[in-house]
Amino acid sequence: MIRTTDEGVLRVVTIDRPERRNALRPDELDALEAAVTDTDASVVYLHGAGDAFCAGADLDTVAALDDPAAFARHGQRVADALQDSASVVVAGIDGAARGGGVELALACDIRVASPDATFAEPGVKFGLFGAWGGTVRLSRVLREGDALDFALSGRVVDAAEANRLGLVSRVVDDPKAVAEEVAANKADALRVVKARMRDDRPREEQEAAEAAAFDRLVKAYAADIAADREKK
Question: Which residue ranges does UniProt annotate as crossing the membrane (predicted)?
Answer without folding.
Answer: none
